[in-house]
Specification:
Elements: H1 40-52, H2 57-76, H3 81-102
Bound molecules: zinc ion.
Length: about 110
């Protein structure tokens, strides 16, 4: 991973070891192999599942919370759109499941 600020090899971490600048994978032309946008896809999948299972409130709330946390973590780590989708869907599924519980439409 080369540093876009000082042009030297920045090292394996998220920050340049020479100048301390953040090493953005988008600017170096190719992403470094292991840093594969953590959390984004998992968060989106959990969001979809929790939305699809909102009439099972326990499952929906648990998956919604996990999806929400994964989405926020993924967003912080730069996962972008999928993480946002996961956050939005999880954030919708949790109150939906609570409402379903409140009005007694659950199994
Ligand atoms: Zn640097």
């Amino acid at each position: 991973m080369y540093c876009s600020k000082c042009g030297k090899e920045g090292g394996p971490g998220p920050m340049c070891q020479n100048c301390g600048a953040p090493l953005a994978s988008g600017q170096s032309g190719y992403p470094s192999a292991p840093s594969k946008k953590p959390g984004g896809t998992a968060s989106m999948v959990l969001g979809i599942i929790s939305l699809a299972t909102f009439w099972f409130p326990l499952a929906a709330i648990i998956m919604g919370i996990v999806g929400l946390v994964l989405g926020i973590v993924g967003k912080v780590k730069g996962a972008g759109g999928k993480a946002v989708a996961g956050i939005v869907m999880s954030a919708c599924a949790i109150p939906l499941a609570i409402i379903m519980t409140a009005i007694g439409l659950t199994v």
